[in-house]
Amino acid sequence: MSSRQFYDAYASGYESYVRRHAGYLFAVEKAIIEVSNGRSDIALLDVGTGTGERLQRLVLELLPNRVTAIDNSREMVALARRNCPVADVRTLALGDPELSSAIPGGFDLVTCLSNVLGHVPRDLLVPGLRQIRSLLKPGGTFVLDVNNRYNAASYGGGRVARNIIRDCVLPRGRSFTAAYQAGDEVLRTQVHLFRPAEVIALLRKSGFASVRVGFRDYATGEECGRFAGSIVAKAVRI
Ligand SMILES: C[S@@+](CC[C@H](N)C(=O)[O-])C[C@H]1O[C@@H](n2cnc3c(N)ncnc32)[C@H](O)[C@@H]1O
Question: Which among 179, 29, 34 is positioned nearest to 113, based on CA atoms?
Answer without folding.
Answer: 29
